[in-house]
Amino acid sequence: MAIDTSRGDRIQNSTAFERAARAGHLVSGVLHLLIGYIAVRLAFGQGGNADQSGALGELASKPGGAVMLWIAVVAFLALAAWRILEAVVGKKTEADSGSATDRLKAGALAVVYLAFAWSALNFARGAGQSTGQQNAGLTARLMESTIGKVVLVVAAAVIIGVGAYHVYKGISTRFEKDLEGHVGRPVRVIGVVGYTAKGLALVGVGVLVAAAVLTADPGKATGLDGAVKTLGAQPFGQILLVLAGVGIALYGVYAVVMARHARM
Largest CB tally within 10 Å, which of 56, 94, 111, 236? Predict the structure, then answer.
């Protein structure tokens, strides 16, 4: 039986809804810029968590931070809703309803943006927690059973796969398909460097999850912050941290570009 998608199509044609969803890209860009800034700051011996919770905490500490966090909640919820709609009726800019793979990716992105919205909500309510500590705690609980360890290994493989795809998407410039109109050289360079840096960071996160299982040390699975700080502990760590911070910040710049030029 065919699904009537006319209502979904009408919702996608709402200018207000599209603008709210695009604001989600803008907020994501700001958070990645803050993560990059924190990573560079770590390179010079200052404190902080170079992950989503660190960026949200940094945002909360600024004048008007609470208001910005509530805006972030709404923007992420709007972008998540847009992705859910894409999973049901396909992209607004495509003539057909989209492939099963495209719909699956849209659904996965919706879950990611819902998680972002939840984190922003907690910080807006004054109940934000370190993402690294939450990851380590969850890993410790899962490692108490064989099934949990299997789940962690699968999760590590998925995260590494997503990271590798980010690297591929950056190097191959496939990200250009996500943008409307002509892509200039500056945007292309930003996209290549940003996607590659973000991908390598995700690969690092996945490797740390796998290492936590293999060494029975849940404290290693501390997410992006753990991956960044592990990088900083290597030879020439200061230089590597600066490069990682700049790369992640450029991914944030690309997300800001997406807010204006993304194919919705």
Answer: 56
pLDDT tens-digit series, residues 82-108 = 999 988 887 766 555 567 788 888 899
80 with 106: CB under 8 angstroms?
no
Residue 169 to residue 179: CA distance in whole angstroms: 13
* Residues linked to residue 262 through DSSP beta bridges, in sequence order: 179
What Cα–Cα distance (Å) separates residue 227 from each residue in 213, 219, 230, 252?
Answer: 15, 12, 5, 18
First to last CA, the chain: 27
Strand partners, 233: none
Residues 155 and 143: their CA atoms lie apart, in Å, by 13
Q: Which residues contact 19 (CB under 8 A, 6 or more apart)?
A: none
**Per-residue pLDDT tens for 150-184?**
999 999 999 999 999 999 999 999 999 889 876 78
pTM of the shown model: 0.88
State CA 236 to chain mean position distance: 27
CA distances from residue 5 to 13, 22, 45, 107, 110 in whole angstroms, order as listed:
13, 22, 54, 17, 19
Percent helix, strand and coil across the chain, each rounded to 5?
80, 0, 20
